[in-house]
């Protein structure tokens, strides 16, 4: 029989100001999982080692590849969304 997937013992969803959502899940084995809406993303920073008593793990995702059409498309989408909010609130 195949192993059953381990269920998260903690999960929290964060709504970002632009409407995207990030879900953080923690598992009994100490692992952490992030689920992010609004693809595509690229990993632009990862600092995962060091002195655990003094350091933090850092993971940074950026929309698309820096300078790519995915990144420009996201910026254009975000500007359009912000402009439509401004127009409807005026």
DSSP summary: helix tally: 1
Rg: 18 Å
Which word captures the global form? Answer: elongated
Multimerization state? single chain
Q: The biggest beta sheet, please?
A: 3 strands, antiparallel
Q: What order do the strands of the largest sheet run in, or round the barrel if closed?
A: 1-2-3
Class by alpha and beta content:
alpha+beta
Approximately how much helix is present in the residues?
10-25%
Would you tell me the overall average pLDDT?
79
* H-E order: EEEEEH
Distance between the termini: 61 Å
Beta-strand segment tally = 5
Strand content: 25-35%
In terms of per-residue confidence, which ranges show pLDDT below 50 for 5 or more consecutive residues?
Answer: none
Number of discrete domains: 1
Structural description of this entry:
This protein has one helix at about 70-90, and strands spanning about 10-15, 20-25, 30-35, 40-45, 60-65. With about 90 residues, it is α+β, with helices and mostly antiparallel strands. The strands form 2 sheets. A 3-stranded antiparallel beta sheet has the order 1-2-3, with no helix packed on it. Strands 4-5 form a two-stranded antiparallel ribbon. Strand 2 (about 20-25) and strand 3 (about 30-35) form a beta hairpin.
């Amino acid at each position: 029989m195949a192993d059953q997937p381990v269920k998260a013992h903690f999960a929290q969803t964060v709504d970002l100001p632009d409407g995207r959502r990030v879900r953080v899940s923690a598992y009994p084995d100490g692992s952490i999982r992030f689920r992010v809406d609004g693809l595509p993303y690229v990993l632009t920073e990862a600092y995962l080692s060091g002195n655990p008593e003094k350091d933090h793990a850092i993971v940074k995702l950026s929309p698309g590849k820096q300078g790519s059409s995915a990144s420009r498309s996201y910026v254009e989408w975000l500007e359009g969304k912000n402009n439509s909010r401004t127009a409807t609130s005026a």
